[in-house]
Design brief:
Elements lengths: L2 H27 L6 H8 L3 H7 L3 H25 L4 H18 L1 H8 L11 H18 L4 H25 L4 H19 L2
Helix pairs in contact: 1-2, 2-3, 4-5, 4-6, 4-7, 5-6, 5-7, 5-8, 5-9, 7-8, 8-9
Amino acid sequence: MGSKERILRQKEQTRANILKAARQIVKQEGWQGLSMRKIADKIEYTAPIIYEYFSSKEAILQELTCKGFQLLSKDLEEARKKHDAPDEQLESMWMAYWDFAHKNKEMYQLMYGVQMTCCSQTTPKTDHPYNLITNVIGKIMQTDDEDIVMQKYFTFFSIIHGLISINMLNEGLGDKMNKQILKDAIIGITRTLHN
């Protein structure tokens, strides 16, 4: 391997270490505790080195947001592949969405602005979960009308995101009760897709 490839690999590793350190700090201290200096201390670099990779804390947050949407998309794709029937795919995808939010609490908070300001820049990566779910909704409804499909998506999203947000703020009603409420909502809304 040449020196150019080694240098490039080292830069990518440093970039990954910065993002990993940022996530570790957030898990310990919350998003309000994240700073460029703390990241630098965690990876034993000076703060100016961090700025060579990310121009600001907001740039790190944006990168983490994109990574979060990539992870969510992967989980949704895997959930969809488990079933052939679109109704079952949709339920499985929303349940995977719920599980993602609870397994990746800090990431979800960043992605959707729960208890913080989120990075609102949309990219193909941030739109991918929406596209995956609306594709299945369109199949169930047997329509290409983007406005109707979008309305149904946001009907699902507002209920599911609301339930997730309530639980992140105050632990809600317990896992068993929440999952039953979630399933009831998914099944109820899915029925309206067939009308």
